[in-house]
Specification:
22 strands
Length: 474
């Protein structure tokens, strides 16, 4: 039995890699669903692999991970857009950094890049600052919805015989006849022969439960603006010249339309601090406008939010065997999302098979594919009409902003959605301009009906995050 602690993109893809060999794989997470911590609040960028320090684990796995996403997106039926990225230079001195990226790209084995200047750049990105003189362009950079990668990977694990356990916070570990006895906060216990610690921000703390030390994780907070989908600024990901602790404040297209502007980078102590600050948002506005002067935050913005990423002093991934049969996958900072498929292979091939000398045989019955969770929109009007003819609930819109129907909501529930946040991340309902002010009550009602619960028993995500505190009529 193999237990994976952490159901983010990295943890779920590791579990999926393991289930290609063993059916007895279980994934645990303290949140209510996959991809609900670091994975849900980042830029969603599949980086080109050109800017990682050569000879680091990040450099080894990032470009490889990028190249794996085409097949992965087809197998797991999530959207991937290879929109490309520009690292832009404003001054002649910035060109030194652009040239350094060429050197790193060559050392990292990245061939897909070019230097863009003058009118060519203006044609590619007519709305960027006219003071930009050149860019390092990487056409293989792309974007995904990270939480959907985690969700689809988790579904694929489950459909191949694995087990998913949510709202399970690991608090203690005991050795029992050379097996690990995992103890969780709700008194649930689970025995495992091998444990993979992929606990994101908390991987260093989980390592201590096994008697191991990994590089200390300190959270770096990044704040963002999300804009409406109807305003189009750029065609690609626009990076500035980075600073010492981050890639800088970006302008990033979003899979479902709109743009992310951010993040900044604040070194903090509290791993639960997801607050926005006036100073941070002001910084983002200023830096975003420097890249794309047309951004109108007052008119175009839908929301602001913050995410945390696990940083270490070493600035590199830590993937290694602890005492016994435990593997610690820690410090998975940017570009962790990009490297995730390659990290999964590395854990299985290099650590479990080679270093731990575990004998694995590939399963003949492994199914790599999972069906789509796609919601129809106006571009699919013929398909949508056909769908409505077959089921009128397909035309009963619950979320008008993102065109999510009652049928979509019910389909999500059949595939495991139990909370308002589950519905949000799986269908896009309440992700639009009104941010759920119109549709939330309708979603609560559908959840209650389909799950045979009272509306006051429906939660936002974890236990205690109530929406309605007493009986109401919906």
């Amino acid at each position: 039995m193999i237990a994976v602690i952490g159901a983010g993109v990295v943890g779920t893809l590791i579990a999926r890699e393991l289930i290609k060999y063993e059916k007895d794989v279980a994934v645990f997470d303290e949140k209510s669903g996959p991809g609900r911590m670091v994975s849900k609040a980042n830029s969603g960028i599949i980086h080109g692999g050109y800017d990682d320090t050569p000879n680091t684990l990040r450099a080894k796995l990032s470009y490889k991970g990028n190249k794996m996403y085409d097949e992965l997106s087809k197998d797991l039926s999530f959207d991937l857009k290879r929109c490309g990225s520009h690292v832009v230079a404003f001054e002649e001195e910035d060109l030194e950094y652009i040239n350094s990226l060429v050197e790193k790209a060559i050392k990292n084995g990245v061939e897909e890049y070019q230097i863009i200047k003058g009118e060519t750049l203006k044609k590619m990105e007519p709305k960027v600052n006219e003071d930009i003189i050149a860019s390092f362009y990487c056409p293989i950079a792309g974007i995904v919805n990270p939480w959907m990668v985690a969700h689809q990977a988790a579904r694929n694990v489950e459909m191949n015989g694995g087990k998913l356990y949510f709202n399970k916070k690991l608090i203690d570990v005991e050795m029992n006849d050379k097996r690990y006895l995992l103890k969780f906060e709700d008194d649930f216990e689970f025995e495992a022969d091998i444990v993979i610690n992929a606990a994101g921000l908390y991987a260093d703390e989980i390592a201590k439960l096994f008697g191991d030390e990994v590089p200390k994780i300190y959270p770096v907070k990044g704040e963002y603006y999300l804009t409406k989908p109807e305003f189009k600024y750029v065609n690609s990901i626009i990076f500035p010249i980075p600073n010492k602790i981050s890639k800088g404040c970006l302008v990033v297209p979003v899979i479902d339309g709109g743009f992310l502007i951010g993040p900044n980078a604040q070194e903090i102590r509290d791993k639960k601090d997801f607050s926005n600050t006036n100073e941070g948002l002001s910084e983002i506005r200023e830096k975003g406008l420097k890249l794309v002067p047309e951004i109108n935050y007052r008119q175009d913005s839908v929301k602001t939010f913050a995410g945390l990423r696990p940083e270490t002093a070493e600035k590199d991934f830590y993937i290694g065997k602890g005492e016994g049969n435990v593997v610690h996958v820690s410090g998975i900072r940017s570009p962790g999302l990009t490297a995730a498929p390659a990290i999964a292979q590395y854990v299985v091939d290099e650590i479990i098979k080679k270093e731990m000398n575990t004998k694995f045989l590939k399963r003949q019955d492994f199914n790599p594919k999972v069906d789509s969770f796609r919601v129809f929109n106006e571009e699919d009007i013929d398909l949508w009409n056909e769908r409505i003819e077959n089921d009128p609930e397909a035309g009963e819109l619950v979320c008008f902003c993102n065109k999510v129907s009652k049928k979509d909501i019910k389909a999500a529930i059949k595939k495991g959605a139990k909370t308002l946040e589950d519905i949000k991340f799986l269908t896009g309902a309440s992700f639009g301009e009104c941010q759920g002010s119109y549709c939330s009550s309708k979603i609560v009602k559908i959840l209650a009906e389909e799950l045979n619960k009272k509306p006051e028993d429906i939660v936002m995500n974890e236990k205690g995050t109530w929406i309605i505190d007493s009986e109401v009529r919906l």
